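debug: dumping io for the single-chain case to check the tokenizer round-trip. Nothing else runs in this session.
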Amino acid sequence: MAPRDLKIKVCGMKYSENIEELLQLQPDYIGFIFYEKSPRFITTQWAVFSSSAGSGVEKVGVFVDELVVNILQKVTDLGLDLVQLHGHEPPQFCAELKDAGLTVMKAFRVGDDFDFTQLQEYAGCCDYFLFDASGPSPGGNGTRFSWNLLQNYNLDVPFFLSGGIDLEHIDEIKALRHPQLYGIDLNSKFEVSPGLKDVTRLKEFFTQLRD
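debug: decoded output
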């Protein structure tokens, strides 16, 4: 996929006014984190989600080792378009959600010793993968993994690239030519504080990537 065609996902959004500013940039996806231990944890006030309703931007709910029934309830209550699983969810868990009609993205924390062959059992029950860097938290650690490791991934499931991506990485992203690279996931490197994004810097990233 050409760099200008890469999807852009901004994750960890938390505040209505900030979301409305972000929507002016027309991201492809907005991520909301439903993990209470995260500093970007969002409560389910409808006002936050109504600001993105009808925008054409897909709403992603991020869950970490959550119960299926709770995920389904959030999808129903908030009109989520996609579910991102960022914990230790097994393939059967992903299949249960997909069988319920949901679009499923499974995140994996990639380090130098990451075994990409383990993804084979997830291939039939996930619509997307997300490759993040290893770190102390399930996500939002602000660190990168070596993108050279992506050459070890050869399945047909498209993936989002995540983990410490900043403006300085634009040229590297444009140079990537993996056939399954589908989108870029932005979070902590564009924050003023957890959950509050610097929309000016995001706009610069959007412009440079889409140029």
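debug: round-trip ok. The first strand starts at residue 7 and ends at 10.
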